[in-house]
Amino acid sequence: MRKRRYSRYKNPQPKKPVINKPLAEIVRELKEASKPPSSYREQSLKIHGVVCAKCGREFDYKNRHLLTIHHKDGNHLNNPLDGSNWENLCIYCHDDEHSRGLLADYLRNKKQ
User: Fold this and answer.
1) Residue ranges per domain, the chain?
2) CATH assignment of 36-111, given 3.40.630, 3.30.70, 3.40.1800, 2.40.10?
3) d(Cα 29, Cα 65) in Å, to the nearest integer?
4) How far apart are CA 78 and CA 85, in angstroms?
5) Per residue in 62-75, pLDDT tens?
6) What DSSP state is assigned to residue 35?
7) Is the pTM of this model over 0.85?
8) Do residues 55 and 31 make contact, with C-beta atoms less than 8 angstroms apart?
């Protein structure tokens, strides 16, 4: 009687590629590759830097997600390439900027 080989049921182990790069560099490259194509947010960060325009807080790679892009005219579809309608604000200053308008409207209606 012949022995049968069931090779299709075996799980072959994938070969590990030989890499001469440090782990941190590999992780950084994978993160860069997984990012979506450049958006107006990335353009604004390049133009204006990773600093809040209102409070002056500086950000780095680890906490740059706390920096948001504020549209000065309020129209999020107005995205000129020169960045003239953008302002980099931290999340706290961005909330403050939008709540000022709400507070002003509330106080204006209360006086009338």
Assistant:
1) 36-111
2) 3.40.1800
3) 18
4) 7
5) 899 999 999 999 88
6) S
7) no
8) no
